[in-house]
Amino acid sequence: MPLIRFFRPVSLLPLCLATLLASCGGGSGGDDEGPPPGTQQYPGGFWEGTVGTGAGQRTMVGFIDGGADGKGGEFYFARGAAGAAGYDGLYGLLRTNVTAVQATGVTYYSVQDGKFATGLTLRGTATPDAATGRTSIISGNYTSPAGTAAATGAPTSFKLNYSPLNNYPASADLIAGTYRGSGVFGGQWVFTVSPTGVLSGRVGGCSVQGTATPRAQDSALYAVTLNLTGDEISCGTRANSQQTGVAVLRFDASNVPNGIWVLTRNSTGTDNTYVLNGLADPRQPSTPPTGSLSASGNWMGTLTLPAGVNGDRSVWGTVLPDGGLFFYTNSSFNHNALYGRLIRYDNDQTATRFVTANDGVFFDRLLDGTGGYQGGYVNGVLIDATLESASGSGAASRLVGTYSYASQPGGYPTQFTMQPDTAYALPSGRQPNVDALVGTYRMPGVGFGGHTVDLQVAVDGSITGETSNGCLIVGKLLSLPGDNTQNLYRVEAFGYLEGTLVPSNTIGCELSSGPSQSGSASAMFNPQGQVVGLRILAAGLLSSGQRAHTVFVGDRR
C-alpha cells in the first residue's frame, strides 16, 4: 500500500471503471500475457523531474491521482515549453499494472501556439524505493503531439521523481495567502486564498473567483476551482468558464510556504488549461509586534545623489500593504523607476526596518543614450529602508533608505528621504471606492515618452485607453482585499495592444509586444476632497526576461 493515498474530490476527467481498463489504457497486455513481474506500484502523488534530452531537456512536474484502488487515475504533467514560453500541459487517465505505466487517449496542450493534440499514448515503468518500497521513480515516454509547435515526430522521454513536497501536510492555514506569477510588479496572474479557502484574483485578463482547499487529510495537494469572468477583449474565450485541478505548495528552509504550483483544465467552456508557477508574498506576522509601523501608502521626497552625479532629485511613489514598492522620478520627457518588494525583518519601539531580498529593479531612462522611452533595466537592486514615526504618534511619518547596484554611477548607494504625499491622502471619513474613480484621465506627452495618453475607468474597474501614437490600453482596477482604509488600489492585466495606425506613426505600437503588467493605483484629491487625477504604477516581466513598466499620472477631464 502507498504511504500517501490521494482521494478524488476534484475531477479533471471521468475515471474509467475497472472493467473497462483495457479501453482506457489500464493494462499493458492481454490476459494471456499475464501481469509484468514485480510488486504492484501505487503512483499517487506529486512528481518532479525532466523531459527530453540534451539541449532540448526541460523541467517537468505533475500529479497523479491514486484512484479508488491506488493504482492510478487522472494525471496532469506540465513541461517547460521551448523558448521559455511557459509550460505545456499533458493530461488524461493513467494506470499501473504492477510496474507498467500506461495512458492512452492523452491530451497535449502547446502553450507556444495555443493548440491541442489528442490521442497521445504514454508508457513507462514505475520503480520502487529499495528501502521503503514506495514508488519513487516513473520513467517512460509519450508520443509526439502532432499539429502543435511542440511536435517532435518521435516519442519524447521523461523521468519523474516522487517529490519531497508530498511530505508536507495540506491545511487551510498553510495555503492562506497571496500568490503571483512573477513578482509584485509584473505578475501576469495573482490571487489570494482566504483562511476559509475562498480564492479571488486575476489570471491574465480574466477575473477569477473560486476555492482552494485540502483534498484529504493524508494528501499534500489542494483541490482548486477557478471561475473565470471578463470581457471579450481582456478575457477572450475563457470568459464564463470554469477550471478545476490541484495545487501544491513549495516551502523554504523554515517550512514556510514560499511558492505554489497550480495545474488546472477546463471543466466547462472552451478547451483551456493553466499551469501557474508562482511565488508567495512574504507572510506577515498574524499579530504585528508592539510598535510596528506600516510602510503602506503614498510617498514623496528627495534623492541624495553621489558627488559628481547629475539627475532627477525629486521622487514619488507607492508602497502596497504586501510590501510592493514602486518609486519614480520626473523629467521633461520620461521617468526613472525603482520597484521591488519590501520585507520587514527587524522591529523595535522607535523604527521598523525594511529591505528587499536583493531583487529590486531600476529603470534608467538614459541607459540607451537618447533619454527616450526605451531606456535600460538593472536587476538585483538592493533597497534598504527604515520607517520612522514622529513623536511616537504611531503613524509612519518618514521613510529613509538607499538603493544600490553594481553598475551605479559614482559607485555609492543613492539615498532617499520620503514623507507621506498629501496630494494622495484619502480625505477624512472617506474609504477607497472604485466608483469614485470612474471617468477619463489624460497624461500629456511630455511625461510618457512623448505620447499623450487618455485613459477611461469604467464602473466595473475596467481600464481602456489610447496613446497618441495609436496604442490601445486595457487593464483592470481593483480594490485591495481586506479592510483597506488607504488610497490604494491594485492594477492587473494592464497592457498595450495594436490600435489605429495614426498618420505620423509608421512603426505601430512598439509596446504591444511587451508583457502584461500589474501594480498599484491611487487617486489625486483637491483640497475639497474631489478626485482630480489618477496615478498608475505598473510593471511586467516575460519568461524570456523582457521587462516593461508604466508611470501614468493623469488629470481628470
Explained architecture:
- With 557 residues, this protein is mainly β.
- It contains 1 helix and 35 strands.
- Strands 1-2-3-4-6-7-8-9 form an 8-stranded antiparallel β-barrel. Strands 10-11-12-13-14-15-16-17 form an 8-stranded antiparallel β-barrel. An 8-stranded antiparallel barrel has the order 18-19-20-21-24-25-26-27.
- The chain starts with 44 loop residues before the first strand and ends with a strand.
- The N terminus is likely disordered.
Annotate the secondary structure layout.
Layout: E1 45-51, E2 58-64, E3 74-80, E4 87-93, E5 95-97, E6 100-110, E7 115-128, E8 135-142, E9 156-162, H1 172-175, E10 177-180, E11 189-193, E12 198-203, E13 206-214, E14 222-229, E15 241-251, E16 257-268, E17 273-280, E18 297-304, E19 314-319, E20 324-329, E21 337-341, E22 343-347, E23 351-355, E24 360-364, E25 376-389, E26 396-404, E27 414-420, E28 439-443, E29 453-457, E30 462-467, E31 471-479, E32 489-498, E33 517-525, E34 531-541, E35 547-556
Antiparallel strand pairs: 1-2, 1-9, 2-3, 3-4, 4-6, 5-6, 6-7, 7-8, 8-9, 10-11, 10-17, 11-12, 12-13, 13-14, 14-15, 15-16, 16-17, 18-19, 18-27, 19-20, 20-21, 21-24, 22-23, 23-25, 24-25, 25-26, 26-27, 28-29, 28-35, 29-30, 30-31, 31-32, 32-33, 33-34, 34-35
Question: Which characteristics define this entry?
Answer:
Lipocalin; 35 strands; 557 residues; eight-stranded antiparallel beta barrel; 4 domains; eight-stranded antiparallel barrel; mainly beta; Porin; 1% helix; 1 helix
